[in-house]
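Record 1 of the preview.
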Amino acid sequence: PMDKSHLSQVAAIERECFSHPWSEVLLEQELYNDMISLVVAEGEDGTVLGYGEVRAVLDEGTLEKIAVADAWRRQGVAEAILSAFIRFGRANLAFLTLEVRESNRAAIGLYEKLGFRPVGRRKNYYTEVHEDAILMTLEWNEHRA
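->
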């Protein structure tokens, strides 16, 4: 789980990954929101490699953010973070949903690998670049034996 000791490193990853990054203050406020689960992936030396955020309302989950530091991309960090949320979701949620840029083929491939399926499109969701978002969902009852 993410805690206050991770905030400066998470904020640095936030600035590196997003065109409209959240401030360290806003990230800290999320730590105290009962509907939010924040996790970090740490290296052996305590370096934050990436982080993720899921919002849960009743039995519905939304992946709000997942980000990995440039130096650690394509090394399984995002998959490890998302897998932790999937384990949580399988035990506590009906489904987990997310939006992803339609041009982000690497992320879409990861989500599909982990069982998410496209269920819709949000036109011009990323207004600054006039790009649609693909809405993807993982429903647990589809994956239970």
